[in-house]
């Protein structure tokens, strides 16, 4: 069974990549695994567009192949997927077998969430990036954002969240 949602965000995933790159993502990913930057540079424009158009997004992901190409993730559910969180968890689970010595180099699943910023201690909206790398490392990165009344997003400095996927 394919996960289905009635939210209009699915059409956004088929949209054209936005040309603007998000400087906070570039700055945050420069000192981390280099594949983080490649994945986020490719996937964040989709997240930005979806949130800008509808205020939220349906979780989605991508994987980086050894030749540097990004492949969008698709997951099939054995049972009905009713919430974005269930879809996010399903996509994260699908990355386990994909990222291995002879498979994809890295994978990321993006979703939007509310999270407490460790610097300001305030609850903020953020894009959550669950990352998995070939060496077995996992990482969750939060990229906080604010949305203007016109839908334009401004991103803050990203921060990591420890823990295993």
Structure summarized in a few sentences:
This protein has 165 residues and is an alpha+beta fold. It is 28% helix and 28% strand.
Structural class by sheet pairing and helices: alpha+beta
Average pLDDT works out at 77
The biggest sheet amounts to: 7 strands, antiparallel
Helix percent reads 25-40%
The rough form would be described as globular
One letter per element, helices H and strands E, the order comes to: HHHEEHEEEEE
Cα end-to-end separation: 24 Å
Description:
- This protein is α+β, with helices and mostly antiparallel strands and 165 residues long.
- Helix content is 28%, strand content 28%.
- Strands 1, 2, 3, 4, 5, 6 and 7 form a 7-stranded antiparallel beta sheet that branches.
- Strand 3 (106-116) and strand 4 form a beta hairpin.
What's the topology here?
Elements: H1 10-13, H2 23-29, H3 34-54, E1 60-64, E2 70-72, H4 84-98, E3 106-116, E4 123-133, E5 138-147, E6 153-155, E7 159-161
Antiparallel strand pairs: 1-2, 1-3, 3-4, 4-5, 5-6, 5-7
């Amino acid at each position: 069974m394919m996960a289905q949602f009635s939210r209009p965000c699915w059409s956004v995933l088929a949209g054209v990549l936005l040309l603007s790159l998000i400087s906070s993502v570039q700055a945050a990913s420069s000192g981390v695994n280099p594949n983080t930057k490649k994945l986020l540079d490719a996937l964040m424009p989709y997240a930005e567009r979806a949130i800008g158009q509808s205020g939220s997004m349906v979780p989605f992901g991508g994987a980086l192949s050894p030749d540097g190409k990004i492949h969008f993730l698709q997951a099939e559910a054995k049972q009905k997927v009713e919430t974005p969180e269930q879809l996010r968890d399903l996509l994260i689970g699908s990355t386990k077998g994909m990222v291995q010595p002879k498979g994809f180099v890295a994978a990321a699943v993006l979703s939007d969430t509310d999270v407490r910023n460790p610097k300001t201690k305030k609850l903020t909206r953020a894009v959550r990036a669950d990352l998995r790398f070939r060496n077995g490392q996992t990482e969750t990165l939060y990229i906080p954002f604010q949305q203007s009344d016109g839908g334009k997003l401004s991103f803050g400095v990203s921060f990591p969240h420890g823990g295993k996927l």
